[in-house]
Amino acid sequence: MKKKTTIKDIANVLNISAAAVSKALHDDSRISDKTKKAVKQVAKNLNYQPNHLASALRSGKSNLVGVIVPRTNSNFFSSVIQNMEEVLNKAGYNIIITQSNESYKKECANIDTLLFTQVDGIIASMANETVDLSYYEKVKSKGIPLILFDRGENDLNVDYIGINDYNSSHMIVEHLVKQGCKRIAHIGGFKRTRIFNNRIRGYVDALEKYNLPQDPELLIESSLTTEEGREKMIELLALKNRPDAVYVAGDYAALGAFQVLNEQNIRMPEDIALVGFGNEAFTAMVSPTITSIEQHSSEIGQQAAKTFLKHVKNESFTQTLNKIILNAELIIRDSSKKQ
Amino acid sequence: MKKKTTIKDIANVLNISAAAVSKALHDDSRISDKTKKAVKQVAKNLNYQPNHLASALRSGKSNLVGVIVPRTNSNFFSSVIQNMEEVLNKAGYNIIITQSNESYKKECANIDTLLFTQVDGIIASMANETVDLSYYEKVKSKGIPLILFDRGENDLNVDYIGINDYNSSHMIVEHLVKQGCKRIAHIGGFKRTRIFNNRIRGYVDALEKYNLPQDPELLIESSLTTEEGREKMIELLALKNRPDAVYVAGDYAALGAFQVLNEQNIRMPEDIALVGFGNEAFTAMVSPTITSIEQHSSEIGQQAAKTFLKHVKNESFTQTLNKIILNAELIIRDSSKKQ
DNA sequence: TATATTTGCTTAAACGTTTAAGCAAATATA
DNA sequence: TATATTTGCTTAAACGTTTAAGCAAATATA
Predict the structure, then answer these.
(1) Segments of chain B with pLDDT less than 50
(2) Does the A165-295+330-336 domain belong in CATH 3.40.50.2300?
(3) Residue A62 and residue B148: Cα distance in Å, rounded?
(4) Which of A111, B13, B129, B210 lies at a 20 to 30 A Cα distance from B247?
(5) Strand runs labelled E in chain B
(6) Phi/psi at A246 (nearest 5 deg)?
(7) Does the fold of domain B165-295 match that of domain B63-162+298-326?
(8) Rounded distance, CA B88 to CA B78, Å?
(9) Distance B39 CA to D21 C1' (A)
(10) Are A237 and A183 in contact (CB under 8 A)?
(11) In the prediction, which pLDDT does B281 show?
């Protein structure tokens, strides 16, 4: 195996100290331009690659940011990650992506992995299962910057970037009312998760605002998987008094509902209007296309990264809480467009 | 900020040397059970977390494996990664995921990032754009294990895990022939990429085997994006003599073709049978569902991880090349099932 | 011309581990 | 009982950086 070039090798070639080389490579003002040029040239010639482990160990900074997402194979999360990465790379940080697969256990393992790798910060979106926040408290107590996006909890008292879920529900209900819908159902997530609770509250308040009946059998909590979307849709269709619109709090569950409607030859939007949430790619692929909410993933990713950078910049007075709430956008498609 | 617990803190508590603590934590046989127990207890009490950077620096092993994929938001890649991760985690390795977004430039940057992070190995699937292999040669020349999957090049002469693309094309053509199709078109990838070349060869040879005409206008190369899938389908429909089946070498491009057929009210499979490649989730979501090829992503992920582990186990005689070629599976769905 | 400041480096220690070498005490072997 | 081996540790160096402290030479200031 070839020996890797170190700072000492460069120092030997030029007959200067390793310290001078290190400083030259970092453009220290106390090193002459002549030396800097010479060092950089030799570094290039010897194909020098800085040993990240050594510098991280010495400086106490790994320049690594850990990311935890429920999954990467969704448009939303992969776009958030991509934009986050772009901002962080420019600032000299690299990211380590981990997936929780919506499992609390895996999420804890991921946190351990990231702490073990000595990341300088963690940006996370919590798993559906996560209720116990002690693992996240652990991160906080270590003094490592923690930023949540999309799925976050207020109680943790950390920076957060997300969309206005409450308003999004209002937009959806308003749209459906305009289409002439009178009995609007909501297949929501679990109330214990903040964002889903907000969507539910928005839905309820909007119904009130537009003087629509608030039938308890039209409001269903679920885990928002495709399979549960199917089941809950079947439940709704079994009612004596069927809804004429269904707003599902997640696109994957909306797809389940969509499949059931298709199988039973129930027309969208004529018989039942359907609205999802998340603007996943497939909502524009299926027929009819599904109305959904665009969550501005790129903006969320950028803001999350910038928030992290703010943290490491002025490490002294970090604890001014940043809550960034973006306005979502309703993408109206065929599944709900009656006119 | 709280000072982190180190091995020395534990040593001080027990009045033994730091070296003894290190050995105790690693269950060295020359440390007494009594000491081991005591050390582990104190480590727990003080909430000791080993400093990965220090051990990696000293031992020359980072226990990190770098992964490069064109994108994570596809079923195939996210499943490969998940399975890879499972195997590697069990062996004490963590993974760093990076995306190339099908860009050669980003791919090179990713390689630099991973080398910089001192990964112990790289598992990659190459970007569509990648033709120049010098960056991968760089990895090889550093003596870092390199394993390719799905998209790999023979010339690099490294371990590879993938499916039998040639046979897959045979399966597809055979299936279409059985459905009574006579003019089978192929929207393929670029010949310069090995896997797409194999798919094309398989298609051509299978046509010959079943005595079907080999019309050059039915064989089209493309970048296999959804947009290109649309364009190439439109081209095929413009022929005087239309095909009665279209085999697209990627699901996203197949989706583009699918959309065009739907828009023009061309029935699948009656007018034109459609087959994709990759078994992306949406192939089972759209209507009609799209026949596709399952690439055994979980198997590929596991095998890639195991191949890496083999490399690090017997580092002496590494260079026995491993090429693992799995048989793919044809998932027959409505878009091609005439009977 | 005498003193102060700046420039351009060196020296030495440190980050938190791991590991080769070695040593005394305990135990086994002849 | 004398020697050999094993057990259970310690000592010291090392991995490749960064950085505080310091020093001589060069330059600026009074």
Answers:
(1) 1, 316-317
(2) yes
(3) 28
(4) B129
(5) 64-69, 94-99, 121-124, 146-149, 159-163, 184-188, 219-221, 245-248, 273-275, 292-294, 323-326, 329-331
(6) -130, 125
(7) yes
(8) 15
(9) 38
(10) no
(11) 86
Task: Give the pLDDT score at B318.
Answer: 52
- The number of C-alpha atoms within 13 Å of A139 and in the hemisphere containing its C-beta is 32
A75 and B73: CB-CB below 8 Å?
A: yes
Residue A124 Rama label (left phi>0; alpha psi -120 to 50; beta): beta
Per-residue pLDDT of chain A (339 residues; tens, 9 = 90+): 467 899 999 999 999 999 999 999 999 999 999 999 999 999 999 999 999 999 999 998 888 899 999 988 888 999 999 999 999 989 989 888 888 988 999 999 899 888 988 899 999 999 988 888 889 998 888 889 999 999 987 778 899 999 999 999 999 999 999 999 999 999 999 998 889 999 999 999 999 999 998 999 999 999 999 999 999 999 999 999 999 999 999 999 999 999 999 989 999 999 999 999 999 988 988 889 999 999 999 999 999 999 999 888 865 445 567 889 999 999 999 999 987
**Where do we find the tokens 């990696």?**
B56
Distance CA A275, CA A291 (A): 5
> How high is the pLDDT of residue B250?
95
- CATH number for B63-162+298-326: choose from 2.40.30.30, 3.30.450.20, 3.40.50.2300, 3.30.450.40: 3.40.50.2300
d(CA B70, CA B150): 11
The pLDDT of residue B143: 84
C-beta within 7 A of nucleic chain C, residues 17-56 of B: 18-19, 22-23, 25-26, 30, 48, 50-51, 54-55
Dig out the tokens for B237 from the structure: 């429909």
Gap from A20 CA to C5 C1', Å: 22
Query: Could you tell me where the DSSP H helices lie in chain A?
Result: 7-14, 18-25, 33-45, 52-59, 75-90, 104-116, 134-141, 165-178, 194-209, 226-237, 251-263, 297-313
pLDDT of B7: 97
Q: How far is B90 from chain A (nearest CA, A)?
A: 12
Is B58 within 7 A of strand C by CB distance? Answer: yes
pLDDT digits (tens, 9 = 90+) for B254-285: 999 999 999 899 999 999 999 999 999 889 88
| Two tokens, residue B195 | 């896997």
CB-CB neighbours of B15 under 10 Å: 6
Instruction: Give the closest of B52, B73, B99 to A118, CB-based.
Output: B52
Q: Cα separation of A246 and B18, whole Å? A: 64
Integer Cα distance of A148 and A155 in angstroms: 12
**Hey, is A283 helix, strand or coil?**
helix
Residues 256-275 of A with CB under 8 A from B: 259, 262
DSSP collapsed to 3 states, A122-140? EEECCCCCCCCCHHHHHHH
In one letter, which amino acid is B1?
M
For residue B162, which of B307, B310, B14, B1 has the smallest C-alpha distance? B307
pLDDT at A330: 98
A63-162+297-325, which class in CATH?
alpha beta
CATH class of B165-295: alpha beta
* C-alpha distances out from residue B71 to A77, A206, B171, B181, Å: 12, 39, 27, 34
